[in-house]
Structures are given as C-alpha cells and as structure tokens.
Specification:
Layout (H helix, E strand, L loop, with lengths): L12 H22 L4 H7 L1 H4 L5 H10 L8 H25 L3 E2 L2 E2 L1 H4 L2 H19 L4 H23 L6 H27 L4 H28 L11 H4 L5 H7 L4 H10 L13 H13 L1 H22 L5 H15 L3
C-alpha cells in the first residue's frame, strides 16, 4: 500500500505509481512556471512551493481525473498545477494578514522579506495561475475566476463576522468559501480535463465541496479535543486567536451552567464579540468544558452527516482504485477526531 497523504490509501503499487507520476509532473510545471520572473521575484514566488506541502489539491484533481477517459493527459497536470498555485497565493496573503512567522516549518515570506514582498509574491502566483489556466480554454478561466472570488469572499465574510445571521451557517459558509471551494474546483477540473461526462463532473465537484468542508470541521474538533489526548497538536489554538469554530458555536448556544461559563470565557461582555483567550488556565478550563459540552457532540454529528453524504456520492460513481482512494480519505476525515 502506498500513500502520499495521511489517511489516503492508494491501494496497489500500479495505481500509486500512476498518481505519483502525475504529481511529479505537477511539481516540475509548478517550479518552472514560478521561476519565470526576475531573481528576487523567483526566489520569493518559489519560497513556499519549495518548502513542500501535502499537494492535496493537485492530488484531489488527479484522483478525480481517473473517472475520465484520459487521466494522464497534459490538461489534467496543467489544471492541477493551477490549483496549487492558487492555494499557494492565498497562503502568502494569509501570512500577511495573520502576521505569521512560520509556514510549513520555514520562515514565512513576510518574515523573511517584508509584507509588501509577500503580497506581491502572492499576486505573481495569481497572475501565473491565470496565464496557465488560459491554455485550458474559456470555461476553465471562468471556473478559476469564480473560485478566486469565492476565496476572497470567504476571507471578507470571516473578517466581518456573522452580523445578525445564523452563526453556524455563517461558519460553514466561510469554511466552504475559504477551503471547500478550491477543493471543489479540483474535483471539477480533474474530471473535466480528463474527459468525464457532465454528471460525473458535477458529482466530483460536490465531493470536493463536502470533503473540503469536512476536513476543516474535523481540524476544528481536534483543536479542542486534543486537550484530552496525544494528537501531537497544541490544543486551543483557535481560542487563543479568538476564533469560534463549530464546536464552540454550538456550545455557546447552550442554556446550561457550562455554556454560561464558556460564554464568560470566550465572549467579550461589552461587545458580544469573540475574545482571544491568552491566559493558559482559562484556555485549559474552556477546552475541558468544551470537550464535555453538547456542542462537541453536535459538531461530531454534523461531521458524520458530511461523511455519509460523501459516501453516498461515491456509490454513484464507478468502482475502482480512485473510488477506493476517495473512500479512504472520507473515512480518515471522519475517524481522525477519535
């Protein structure tokens, strides 16, 4: 068995080799495209690409392409590269907004150079992605343009907050726009460029929606639940940043004494807005209350609903190595929360 991503089982050596070959071609094209500018631009633009990463979006597109008639074609590799460029561009901009010192275990571009250089490097990646996707035709250009818009809208929506709307639906919408939309595009591009039929393309697009959103939800559950286990993660990162994720939102809506205390810890009483919890003792108290709260059970149930929908979609697609690989990814996403 071979895997290139935690929880993803690629089955036979033959299928794993096909996927690895496509991923290697994506890597070569990615570095070539980002090395096309002046030296300072090339160094900054390739900084994150050379730092590594899971290449999850290209992987998703390549797996989706195996439901088409020509999974190894150049257009699949091109579209997968466009997706990774787009993802990398958002990371440069995210690091500036978050003032992040590290990314993928290396110094972030904004720390190594400056915010301006990091922003411009992200812009360059968007530009190169736009140029590359244009070789796939007007439909592909429209898809990536719509995805650009969704990524930006999600960031803006998160910054503004839910206002008077439903906080759960706001959270899920932000997660889809910031994460799910690009993985949905991966399913769509991979299937479309490999010659899959229209219904298969739609199904794999929806599968990307679900898996992208579900993976973020599972990450958010782990950020809290890891306080009682040994996940290798530092628990409470979101609480320290004043970010309310799905388990927290559900718990805050409760009417018991624990929910009241959680509100005291996590909500600014003057504004009603989330507050960053910086005191270690308060973080620890909040985490233990959240683990035991009904909100955690509700978040787990919502995640399972997503997994069940994903399994249902896979049942409508042809069986085979790619279907099995996607099923292993769904299982991992649902089971990794413990």
């Amino acid at each position: 068995m071979k895997s290139t991503f935690a929880g993803l089982d690629l089955g036979t050596d033959e299928f794993a080799g096909q996927v690895q070959t496509s991923l290697a071609r994506v890597e070569d094209l990615l570095i070539a495209e980002l090395s096309s500018g002046d030296q300072i631009l090339t160094e900054a633009a390739t900084h994150l690409a050379k730092a590594g990463g899971k290449r999850f979006r290209p992987m998703f597109a390549i797996l989706a392409s195996h439901f088409g008639t020509d999974p190894g074609c150049d257009d699949v590799v091109t579209s997968a590269t466009v997706l990774e460029m787009t993802h990398l561009a958002t990371l440069y901009h995210d690091d500036v907004m978050d003032e992040a010192p590290l990314r993928r275990g290396a110094q972030s571009a904004n720390s190594r150079w400056s915010n301006s250089i990091a922003i411009l490097a992200g812009d360059f990646l968007f530009a190169r992605a736009s140029a590359l996707v244009s070789t796939l035709g007007p439909d592909a250009v429209r898809i990536i343009a719509d995805t650009f818009a969704e990524l930006v809208t999600g960031q803006m929506r998160e910054t503004v907050g839910p206002q008077d709307g439903d906080p759960v639906e706001h959270y899920l919408r932000v997660v889809w726009e910031k994460t799910g939309s690009l993985i949905a595009a991966a399913g769509r591009f991979g299937a479309m460029t490999a010659g899959a039929d229209e219904q298969t393309v739609k199904t794999l697009t929806r599968l990307g929606d679900i898996i992208g959103t579900a993976f973020q939800v599972s990450d958010d559950i782990i950020d809290i639940a890891s306080v009682t286990g040994d996940s290798g993660k530092t628990p409470g990162t979101d609480l320290r940043e004043g970010v309310h994720t799905l388990p927290v939102i559900y718990a805050l809506a409760g009417d018991g004494a624990d929910s009241a205390r959680i509100r005291e810890l996590l909500v600014d009483p003057a504004t009603g807005e989330p507050r960053a919890v910086t005191d270690d003792a308060e973080v620890d108290e909040a985490l233990h209350l959240l683990v035991a709260a009904d909100g955690m059970s509700a978040a787990r149930a919502r995640l399972q609903e997503m997994a069940d929908e994903a399994y249902g979609l896979l049942e409508t697609l042809p069986s085979g190595a790619a279907n099995d690989a996607f099923a292993s990814l769904v299982r991992y996403t649902a089971d990794r929360i413990g």
